[in-house]
Amino acid sequence: MNTPKANKRTWAEPFKIKMVELLRMTTREEREQAIREAGYNTFLTRSRDVYIDLLTDSGTAAMSDRQWSGLMLGDEAYAGSENFYHLEAVVREYYGYEYLVPTHQGRGAENLMSQLLIKPGDHVPGNMYFTTTRLHQELAGGAFVDVIVDDAHDPESSFPFKGNVDINKLHQLVQEVGAKRVPYISLEGNVNMAGGQPFSMANLKELHDYCRKHDIPIMLDATRTIENAWFIREREDGYANKSLRVILREICDLTDGCTMSAKKDALVNIGGFFACNDAELFRKAQNLVVVYEGLHTYGGLAGRDMEAMAQGIREAVAEEHQAARIGQVHYLGEKLDDAGIPIVMPIGSHAIFIDAKRFLPHVDQDDYPAQALAAELYIESGIRSMERGNVSAGRDPKTGKNRRPALELVRLTIPRRVYTQAHMDVVAESVIDVHKRRENIRGLKMVYEPEYLRFFQARFEPIK
Amino acid sequence: MKTIIEPFRIKMVEPIKLTTREQREQLIEAANYNPFLLRAEDVIIDLLTDSGTSAMSADAWGAMMRGDESYAGARSWYRFLETVKDIFGFEQVIPTHQGRAAEHILFGVMVDENSIIPNNTHFDTTRANIEFFGGNAIDLPCSEANDLESEYPFKGNMDIAALEKLVADEGPERIPMIMVTVTNNSGGGQPVSMANIRAISRIARGAGIPFYIDACRFAENAHFIRRREPGYENTAAIDIAREMFSYADGCTMSAKKDAFANIGGFLCTNDAGLAHRERNILILTEGFPTYGGLAGRDLEAIAVGLREVLDEDYLEYRLLSTRYVVEHLHELGIPVVAPAGGHAVYLDARRFLPHIEPLQYPGQSLVVELYIEAGIRSVEIGTVMFGADPHTQEERPARLDLVRLAIPRRVYTQSHMDYVIEGINLVWERRRGIQGMRIVQAPQFLRHFTAKFDWVRENAEPSYRSAVE
Questions:
Q1: Interface residue of A48, A268, A270 to substitute, partner B, most B CBs within 10 Å
Q2: The whole model's pTM is what?
Q3: Which of A259, A290, A316 is the last residue of a domain?
Q4: Which domain holds residue A205?
Q5: In angstroms, what separates the C-alpha of B422 from chain A's closest C-alpha?
Q6: Is A455 annotated in the active site?
Q7: Is A1 contained in some domain?
Q8: 3-state DSSP helix/strand/coil percent for chain B, to nearest 5?
C-alpha cells in the first residue's frame, strides 16, 4: 500500500468523530448472492450488505454536534415555525435570495419550478442534463436543450471549467425558437453528469449579460454551488483571496432564483428549497407548494430539519470544511490516476468518475459497461457505486433507442464527513484490483425496464 | 379514579412565550386574520392541528439516533416496512414525505375527469388532490353526523344506503375507489364502526371497486370501537386495527397523526401492478422507493410511534383528555360537537355566532377572537375551507361551519386545557359583539392556508368573487 504523500496531509479533517455507525463485513460469496438478488443494480442492494457506500453524496452526510442540537430545537408548529424564519434569514444572508419556499428535497423544488415557469412547447437550455431535472422539464411540456461546452463531453479534456455554458449554443437556440419560448436557463454548479465540473465566474458574467439582453431568467441549481465557488477561487484569476461566502453571493447575485437540494452542500439528511427574487413568482410558488409538499412555512419538512439546514449552510461555507472535503476527493482521484485507472479529469468536488468505456473497452455501450463495472466493484469489496451512463441517460423519446451518451461513467460519490482516509485507501485498492482483471468482465442485459428514471429500479442479468 | 392518568412523564420541555391582548390584536391583523400566517412563537396554546405536532417518546428519539441515511435499502427502511406490514397487513408499502403526497400519488394514478370518489367526509387535502386531477369528491356521511348534538356512538359512519345508490346510479366504471376516513376529521373527529367498514367493503367488493382507508387516526378509531361496539370489549387495539384494514384494498396514512411523527406518511396496496405505477411517480416527486423523501431517522421514529400509539393506556388517556374539554364546554352551555371525538374539540360556529351568516364565515371570526382573547390558535373547518366550488369558483355555504381545536398528542397538560376552556368561555360571554369576515384574497386550491381576510364592514357586499383568482 502506498504511504500518503506528505503534502496530502493538509486536508486533515477540521473535526473529530463524535458518533460512529458500525459496519458489517461480508464475504465475497455473500456479496455475489446479494448483487444477483438485486438484479445487478446497486440501487437495489440493501445498505446492511454494503461496506463503503459511495452510491451518492445526497443526504448521506454526517451532521455536526451543532446540527444535532438544532434537531432538538425543532419548532414543529404547522404554521409559522421559528425554524422557518431562521432558515429564511440564513438563505438570505448566504445565497442572497429574497424569497424562500422550503421543500422536502430538491426534486420537490424542481417540480414546483418546472410547473410554474414552463409552458408546453418551451425549450429549457441547461449546462448538461440531470436525470430528475430533465424529467420534470419534460413532464411540464418543455424540451431540454444541452448548451454546455463541448469539453464537458470529453472525459479526457483537462479544461478547468467544463461546467461552462457555451454562449454560442445558447444563442443558436434563442435564434431558432425565439427568446419567448425560453422560460429560463437552468444553470448547475459543479455539473454532476459531467463529472462534478464547475463553471467559471467569467462565464456566468457573460451568460448574465446575454440573458439580460434577451430577458431570459437564470435559474441556478444551487445543489453544489459552494463546491463550485471553491474551484473558482482555486482556478480563476482574481478570486484567490476572496472567501467562499463572497464568491457564493457573487454567483447568486448574477442569477434570478434557484432550486436547492440541501442534501448535498448543506450537510443535511433531508431538505431542499426554491428561492427567488420575484415577488409574483414567489406568491405562485407559495400557493402551489401546499398541493405537493406542505404549508409554505414548512414545505414538507419537520421544523428540526429546517434548523439543521440553517446550521449546515453556515458550516458548508467554512473554508476548512471545503478544504478537507475536496482534499479527500482529490486524494482518492490522484491515487487512481497514479495507478493508471481511467477517470474523468480534472477531478471534481463530490465524486470520482471512472470512465467505463476506457476501463472496459471490450464491452459495447448497449451492454452497459458502467453498470457492469459498478456490480463488479460491489462483488470485489462491498463498495456501492452508481452508474452514470447509458442506463441513466434513458431512451430518446422520439426514436425509442438508448441515448448512448458520450460519457459512460461509474460514479464513486464521497459522502461528506463520513469516511476516513483508510476507507479511501480500501476503495483505491479495490478499483485497482478490478482493473487488473478487467478483461474477464462481461456486459449486462436489461431484463426489466421502468418507464421513468429507469436506472433506479432496472434489473439486469450477466450476458453469457 | 376520576383523574385522567397520563401514561408518561415529561422528559423535555419547550418554553412558551406569553403575549398581551394588545400585541395579539396587532399580530392577527398583520397576519391578515389568518392563523396559518401567524408566527408560531406568537401563539400561547397551539391547537391549529394535531398533525406533526406530537411529543415523541425517548424511545423514538433514541431510534432517531440510529437512522440509517443510506439512499437505497437502508436498515431503517426495513424496520419501517416490517412494522407497517405487521399492523396494516398490506403487501405493498410506499413511503412518502407526508400524507398529502401519498394521496397525490394515489389519485394521480386512479383519478381522471370522469371520476367520482365517495368518502364519509373528505378532508381538505384529500378533496383538493382529487379536484386537482379533475375528479369529483363526494361526501356521504351518515344522517346522524348532521345532528351536532346527537350522541350516536359512530357519527363518522358512511351512509351505506347512499353509497349503494351512488354505485347503482353511476356504475363502478366511474368510481375508481371508495374511501373512508378514520376517524372522520371534517365531521368532528367521530369514529367509524367496524360494522360500517364491513358494509362498505361488501359493497366495494361486490362492485369490484377498490376500497381505501384514510388511516391517519386509525388507532383512535380502534379504541372507539373497543369502547363502543359490542363484541370488541376485550379485543386489543392492534387486532381491531388489523381487522379494519383486512376489509380494505389499501390505505393512505399521515404518520404525523397516529404515529407521533413530526414528518412522514405512506401509501399501501395489495395490487403489485398499481404499486409499480405509484413508485414511478414516487421517484419523480418524492424520492427513491426505500426512503420516499424521508430521512432514515424519520422512518425509525414512525416505526416506534406506530407501536406506541396502539398502547391501551395511551389510547384511553387520549380519548378521555379530549372528552374532558368537551364536557366542560358543554356544561358551560357552549355549542360543541357531541359526543367528543378523538383528536379535537369542534365548536359549532353557526350556533356560537347565529347572527353571522355562513358567507361571512362565522368560523373564521371565532378563530380570530379565540386568538385575540387567549392566544389560542385554532382552525376554521367550514365555508372558508370548503365553500368555493372547484370548477365554477362559486361561493356556497359548507355543510357545517365548525372551529376545530386540535389537541397535539402528549404535548399539553390538564392545566393548559383548563386555560383553553376559560378562554373560549370569555369569548362566549361577549359573542354578540363579534362581526363576520370577508375574503380579501385567495388562491384556487387549498385557499384556507394562505387566504387573507378582513372584518366585514357595515353594508359591504361579500367580496369573494372578485377576490378569488
A1: A270
A2: 0.88
A3: A316
A4: 65-316
A5: 23
A6: yes
A7: no
A8: 45, 15, 40
